[in-house]
Amino acid sequence: MIADADGRVDAARYVASCNCDERPPGEAITLLVIHNISLPPGEFGGDAIVRLFTNELDCRSHPYYRTLAGLRVSAHFLIRRTGELLQFVPCTKRAWHAGVSSWRGRSGCNDFSVGVELEGTDDAPYTEPQYRVLAELTRALQSAYPISAVAGHCDVAPGRKTDPGPSFDWPRFRNTISR
Description:
The chain is an alpha/beta fold. 20% of the residues lie in helices and 20% in strands.
């Protein structure tokens, strides 16, 4: 897996999201933020996540989606339960994934991070293919950018966000990226 000079990863299926903008000039990518998402909550598969990130979600099609009306969000990557890797925003651009956030005294984590969504919930175990692809992606991104830390959304937005949740096996993940 390789991240090219334009911030695209060769192993990912690219689906462009307009929910992004330019990073501040000279801003280095030093943080990877791990999230989870399922739409509707607790349901896996389908195209709702892609539709949300591309502003094509019909918010009238499910009662939960009404809470998302007008929301403009994205992440750089989504790893499905099957291990399928999708990319929505080139790493060279700022995806809108972390919201109000801070890491080690710096606010606005979207400026200096890459966001990776795992299809899942806080309390459902993640799959073997997800851990494998996340490790490969993390190593590829660390090779391309000066990423010095990996954090959960819960770490950059404590009290506001809980993902990737207690079901995410941090020791297992850290072991796989240190190889």
